Amino acid sequence: MDVIGFNDLVSSESAARRFFLGFCWKNHQRFCPRCRERTLYRVAGGRRRCTRCGYTFHDFSRRFIAASAFDCRQWLWLLKFFELGVPPRDVAAQMRVAYHTVLKAQDLVRRAIVATALDAGVLYRAGLRPGPGGKKTGLEMTDAPVFGIIEVGGVAICDIMADITPEDLLLFKCNFRLRTASVGGVVYTAPYQKYQTLVCCGPALWPARYMRHEDRNLPADASGFWTFVKHRLALVRGLSPGHFPLYLKEWELRYNRREGGLLEAMAKALCGFVPETPAPGG
Ligand SMILES: [Zn+2]
Q1: Residues 136, 155: one domain?
Q2: Quick count: other Cβ atoms within 10 Å of Cβ 118?
Q3: If you measure from the C-alpha of residue 58 to the centroid of ligand 1, how many angstroms do you get, rounded to a whole number?
């Protein structure tokens, strides 16, 4: 979205709200976010109550967008700055809000993007918190999950490889001579099965001082997406394994929307429901 279209949306809170509401209900068909019942009645404050389970909700209840105190216009500005890659400190100054408020909102956007992935459940079971606050899963993510990356016709796909651990990567390297290279703490490999590269980060990949991930000219180095990721990895310092999946999924979306539509895609994700935190061991 260019600034001309954006300007119309931020001209009033009601215009901004209409924009987000468009992503919340298909054909304005409201349903109970808790039990999906469609028979509702109106109660005070523009809210609705479910006739089946009695849950009272407003249009943004249980969605990522409601997890911040931002109004719709502030969310639009946040997304616009995020789209343009403006540093969080500058965003905070421009929006006259606290720095940590901006960080929290950006974290929400990333978690909302992850929630749109078909295999998000695998990440949650690995210990990634689906949304803000919520119960601690009891799992602490020491190493990021392994991702397999393919790029087809300029579209990048980052699949979570539920069956491959970081230890497996080292095994493939040592026993089957799978070549590996690294950017900071992030390790990537030569092609594996249908994937152009496997990617992971975490201490398990660096078990000893002698461990090296320095092979040169891996096929991934010639890929548009991986070049894009390497450039971004160089800009974020000290990316923890627990945050790596959030950033990788953000970059996947950014890359696939590089011709336009990134703000709309992020707004749509923000209007999604926050998934339940899976029970420990579940
Ligand atoms: Zn209900």
Answers
A1: no
A2: 8
A3: 13
